[in-house]
Specification:
Shape of chain B: globular
Radius of gyration of chain A: 30 Å
Strand content of chain B: 15-25%
Helix content of chain B: 40-55%
Number of strands of chain B: 5
Oligomer: heterodimer
CATH class of chain B: Alpha Beta
Order of helices and strands of chain B: EHEHEHEHEH
Shape of chain A: elongated
Distance between the termini of chain B: 16 Å
Number of helices of chain A: 20
Helix content of chain A: over 70%
Largest sheet of chain A: none
Largest sheet of chain B: 5 strands, parallel
Number of helices of chain B: 5
Largest interface: A-B, 13 and 16 residues
Structural class of chain B: alpha/beta
Structural class of chain A: mainly alpha
CATH topology of chain B: Rossmann fold
Number of domains of chain B: 1
CATH architecture of chain B: 3-Layer(aba) Sandwich
CATH superfamily of chain B: Response regulator
Strand content of chain A: under 5%
Distance between the termini of chain A: 91 Å
Order of helices and strands of chain A: HHHHHHHHHHHHHHHHHHHH
């Protein structure tokens, strides 16, 4: 037999559990009802308005005229509907759809959502502010970016970049470094949403004192835009930076824009102590129009590092005169080392590709 | 006189892209047979013999390249022009598709007028 107070405690616990379960069921039911309601409203919007939007795309109706037919309370459904279309269409069709937002009072609705305290509303509005380039949203985005929330930071930064708010670059970088768990790929995604004018700003920030993670991201942005004017700046980074990743990214940039003036500096790195740098230097120098390093590259076939040997063989085969013959001689010589095996492998792959 | 509208087969799993293309084609008196997966594309082509096939490269169940290879190796349908519909980061697949015999391609995101121009060019209507 339990004492009375234990018995009451058990009954209380059971009642509490039952009540919680009941509340949970009610909560789930309410969520489902809300979700069904939203889906129905969205479907109803689609049925009522899709044909009007299609016809808007095909004729010269003014955006304000079409929007005036849509009640304000339906803007949420309109934007949900347009979101996928904005991601699917480009050119004139995209511009027409964007004009439904940025040339009408729908932009006021976006601004209102950017001022909201609700995280989801801000993220939702940032998407449209950026995609449709609502420039008057810039001051608000510069505020929302400071809210310490990773998702808000990302959506606001992307929006600022999409509206080419170059003067927000420092702010974006300043806020970005506050997030320890944000990888540099996110920064790259943000910076490549700007147009290529951002490269000029980035070049000014790129020095040997720049933090390694920022410097490699900046170099990747410059490479993404194939920004020719950055040749000398990147060459300086290649020569004076002592950081492996910065040197490798600088080499990749030089390779991408085929910056011939860097050939001598790149050739020096064929002797670098790190095999990753030697390997990238071979790739880079073989892409430049300077063929005077062929013997040097050929000698790299006999190194100890596999990747360096592989890149050297690939460079000889693809970029130098009689490369195939040179590799054939090596492949079937008495040399039994890696260089002969790599040569045989590359020649065999080439024959398959050429259909021989 | 044959009043049957010219038939086009659209194999595309993106709902929005499908809605736009179907709407536009139907408004220009084409009849569209739509498939959202790659499962029965070849069988459907053999059954309806469309004027033109618009084929997404990344379809569920069977990818576009496999389908294209089957279409081009079957003498009953190898002559039907195929336009590839794909995102612009599939350069390798696109190159392969053109080698396999696709006549042209449309990159997503796309422009409705350019898409229609290509469809008209290859459906000869």
């Amino acid at each position: 037999m339990y004492p009375d107070n234990i018995y009451h405690l058990i009954v209380f616990a059971i009642l509490l559990l039952l009540s919680l379960s009941y509340l949970l069921i009610v909560f789930v039911v309410i969520l489902r009802i809300l979700n069904n309601y939203t889906t129905k409203q969205q479907t109803r919007f689609l049925n009522d308005w899709e044909s009007l939007i299609f016809s808007f795309l095909e004729n010269d109706e003014s955006p304000a005229e079409l929007i005036s037919k849509i009640p304000k309370r339906k803007y949420k459904y309109l934007l949900n509907y347009l979101r996928e279309f904005l991601l699917t269409l480009n050119g004139k069709d995209f511009e027409r759809l964007a004009s439904l937002i940025n040339h009408t009072k729908v932009s006021d609705y976006i601004i209102k959502n950017l001022k909201s305290r609700n995280k989801n509303n801000i993220i939702f509005a940032s998407f449209f502010a950026g995609t449709t380039k609502i420039e008057i949203a810039k001051p608000l985005l510069q505020k929302t970016i400071r809210i310490h929330n990773q998702q808000i930071f990302f959506s606001s930064s992307v929006a600022l970049a999409q509206i080419n708010a170059y003067d927000s670059l420092d702010l974006i970088l300043h806020e970005f470094i506050k997030y320890n768990n944000f990888g540099n790929d996110y920064l790259l995604l943000i910076l490549t949403e700007f147009d290529d004018i951002i490269c000029d700003k980035i070049m000014k920030l790129l020095t040997v004192e720049t933090s390694p993670s920022l410097a490699t991201t900046f170099l990747r942005v410059l490479r993404y835009y194939k920004y020719q004017d950055a040749g000398q700046t990147v060459l300086r980074m290649l020569v004076y930076s002592h950081l492996k990743d910065v040197k490798i990214e600088s080499l990749k940039f030089i390779e991408e824009i085929k910056f011939e003036k860097a050939a001598f500096a790149v050739s020096k790195l064929l002797e670098h102590k790190l095999p990753e740098i030697r390997s990238q230097a071979i790739k880079t120098i073989s892409q430049l129009d300077n063929k005077s390093f062929e013997d040097k590259i050929f000698s790299k076939l006999f190194e100890n590092d596999y990747d360096v040997q592989y890149q050297a063989a690939l460079a000889i085969l693809n970029h130098y005169e009689d490369g195939e013959k040179k590799l054939s001689d090596l492949a079937y010589s008495i040399n039994k080392g890696n260089s002969a095996a790599i040569s045989r492998m590359l020649l065999s792959e080439k024959r398959v590709r050429d259909g021989k | 006189m044959n009043n049957t509208p010219p038939q086009i087969l659209l194999a595309e799993d993106n709902e929005i892209a499908k809605r736009i293309i179907v709407h536009k084609l139907e408004s220009e008196n084409y009849s569209v047979v739509h498939l959202a997966t790659g499962e029965n594309v070849v069988e459907t082509v053999l059954a309806i013999k469309p004027l033109l096939i618009i084929l997404d490269l990344l379809l569920p169940v069977r990818n576009g390249l496999t389908i294209l290879r089957d279409l081009k190796s079957n003498p009953l349908c190898s002559g039907i022009p195929v336009i590839i519909f794909t995102t612009n980061n599939n350069e390798e697949m696109l190159k392969k598709a053109l080698e396999l015999g696709a006549v042209d391609y449309i990159l997503k995101p796309f422009s409705i007028s350019e898409t229609m121009a290509k469809i008209k060019k290859y459906s000869n209507t």
